[in-house]
Amino acid sequence: MIGRISGRLDWRGPDHVLIDVRGVGYIVHVSDRTLAALPGVGEAVSLYTDLMVREDLLQLFGFPTMLEKEWHKLLMTVQGVGAKASMAMLGTLGAEGVARAITLGDARAIQAAPGVGPKLAQRVILELKAKAPAVMAQGVALSAAVPDAVIEDVPAAPAPKPARKAAPPPAAVARAAATADALSALTNLGYGPGDAAQAVATVASEAPEADTATLIRSALKLLMPR
């Protein structure tokens, strides 16, 4: 199983890239969001990958973080969701957006992805709503797991540029950490994972910059009996 590709970006296509690793070129399919965030041709690049195997086809799909890769694998467990639909959802909403939409039951957000109709969007929510809290709780660790971009020396090739670590935006890591901490605190207080995740997701959607304490306080207000 190929779990990660690190090398030099040789070519960019509309939905895939060619990464040179020691003179071997790997075609890696990526979402629109990931493609836009990649460096220029000739620069170091590193992506976590998921290998899809069919009788007549082998395809690599690339992701900037382990969190996004885990969401891709989870989305693929839904009946009717193939790699193309999964990448469309992640490309439109990102890992955090997909998690929030599923937790809140927001089918319209899922439908915003190209090629995803209302029935499929509803199925995604119904089948994954119970599983979303577990992935959300792992968010900070998975978001922080970012591969080093390593370039191997290739004979007769120009001297490689220094490898760069393609870290996720600090704000995204901070939001994932706050969400994970708030979920942990609420479940420790005895609230169910599903209820806690929905309350935290609701608060986070209304106040994206909220810290852990604010998430917990606001979520508790939603969870308290009326």
UniProtKB/TrEMBL annotation:
Q: Where is this region: Domain III?
A: 174-226
What GO CC terms are in its UniProt record?
cytoplasm; Holliday junction helicase complex; Holliday junction resolvase complex
Q: Where is the signal peptide?
A: none
Which parts of this chain are annotated as the region Domain I? 1-64
Gene Ontology terms for molecular function = ATP binding; four-way junction DNA binding; four-way junction helicase activity
Query: Where mainly located?
Result: cytoplasm
Domain Holliday junction DNA helicase RuvA C-terminal: from-to ranges:
178-224
Q: Where in the cell is it found?
A: Cytoplasm
Please list the GO biological process terms of this entry. DNA recombination; DNA repair
Q: Which domain of life is it from?
A: Bacteria
Query: Where in this chain does the entry annotate a coiled-coil region?
Result: none
- Provide this UniProt record's keywords sorted from A to Z: Cytoplasm, DNA damage, DNA recombination, DNA repair, DNA-binding
Q: Which NCBIfam families match?
A: ruvA
Subunit text: Homotetramer. Forms an RuvA(8)-RuvB(12)-Holliday junction (HJ) complex. HJ DNA is sandwiched between 2 RuvA tetramers; dsDNA enters through RuvA and exits via RuvB. An RuvB hexamer assembles on each DNA strand where it exits the tetramer. Each RuvB hexamer is contacted by two RuvA subunits (via domain III) on 2 adjacent RuvB subunits; this complex drives branch migration. In the full resolvosome a probable DNA-RuvA(4)-RuvB(12)-RuvC(2) complex forms which resolves the HJ.
What this chain does, per the record? The RuvA-RuvB-RuvC complex processes Holliday junction (HJ) DNA during genetic recombination and DNA repair, while the RuvA-RuvB complex plays an important role in the rescue of blocked DNA replication forks via replication fork reversal (RFR). RuvA specifically binds to HJ cruciform DNA, conferring on it an open structure. The RuvB hexamer acts as an ATP-dependent pump, pulling dsDNA into and through the RuvAB complex. HJ branch migration allows RuvC to scan DNA until it finds its consensus sequence, where it cleaves and resolves the cruciform DNA.
Q: Any domain commentary? A: Has three domains with a flexible linker between the domains II and III and assumes an 'L' shape. Domain III is highly mobile and contacts RuvB.
Similarity comment = Belongs to the RuvA family.
This protein's name:
Holliday junction branch migration complex subunit RuvA
Q: Which organism is it from?
A: Neotabrizicola shimadae
Q: Which gene encodes it?
A: ruvA
